[in-house]
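Need a sequence for this fold. Nothing fancy.
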């Protein structure tokens, strides 16, 4: 999961709960401009609400240290673990070099949009302050 996907992961996690599916993911930290830890605090707060809401469905699920994360019978534990991991990321302070990373993110998305015909402004409107600041 990356800065561009962490806000949309709750929908996938809900789907996994509904369909009793196991999910596996890693946190993108390289390149740094995709690390979710650099998100602006207002966006983190917005995303965090989604995870907190989803977490309410799993109050009775207990996280354990030793379980088979590939066993479909453990799908709720896997989902809860992902929720907790994302909530921890979204609760961290924004990195000091975030402004530099935002500039690199805007350049990356501009390039990506030209290649694939996307529009990051439409895909990620919650990041408009970054797009505006770096003339996206």
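Here you go.
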């Amino acid at each position: 999961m990356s800065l561009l996907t962490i806000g949309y992961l709750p929908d996938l996690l809900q789907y996994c709960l509904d369909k009793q599916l196991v999910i596996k993911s890693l946190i993108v930290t390289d390149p740094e401009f995709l690390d979710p830890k650099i998100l602006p605090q207002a966006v983190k707060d917005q995303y965090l609400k989604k995870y907190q809401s989803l977490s309410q469905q799993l109050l009775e699920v207990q996280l354990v240290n030793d379980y088979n994360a590939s066993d479909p019978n453990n799908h709720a534990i896997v989902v809860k673990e992902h929720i907790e991991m994302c909530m921890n990321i979204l609760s961290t302070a924004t990195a000091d070099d975030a402004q530099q990373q935002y500039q690199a993110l805007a350049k990356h998305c501009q390039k990506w949009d030209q290649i694939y015909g996307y529009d990051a402004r439409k895909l990620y409107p919650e990041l408009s302050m970054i797009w505006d600041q770096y003339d996206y």
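For context: Residues 98-116 form the longest helix (19 residues).
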